[in-house]
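I would love for you to help me understand the pair of lines that follows before we discuss the fold together.
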Amino acid sequence: MTRFIHTIGAVALIVIGGAVAGAAAPRAMPPQELTAAQAVRIPLDSGASALVYWLRGRDGADVVTTIDTPVRDRDGSWDHALVRVEATLLPGESQRVAVPAPIEQQQLGRQEVLRIMRAGDHVEIGVERSGSF
């Protein structure tokens, strides 16, 4: 289990104008190795995206995950809900980050989960999806 999980800031809403175009993402992403100190952007089917990087810390692999989820405001404009999560992982430990989906996708049972794993001296990330997108 993760020894340390700390959420930096609750949720920050940044108002932007115009439509948000999302890149199509694959149905599932098998685990892939992340290079230390190099950020990777992962587009998600829900229109959200994740930015993940890790550093070699004193107590383990310090993993930082930032999720950007576009949400339509009542007036039809787009806002972004940003969440940043930090965790220190020891070998064999993993962290799961559930990514919020739009209400209509939640009602269909659709859910995306980032799975970040410490495997030996490196970190891997994969995306698990439930329901059909």
About this structure: Residues 103-107 form the longest helix (5 residues). The beta strands are 4-16, 29-34, 40-43, 49-56, 61-72, 78-89, 94-99, 111-119, 122-130. The chain has one helix and nine strands.
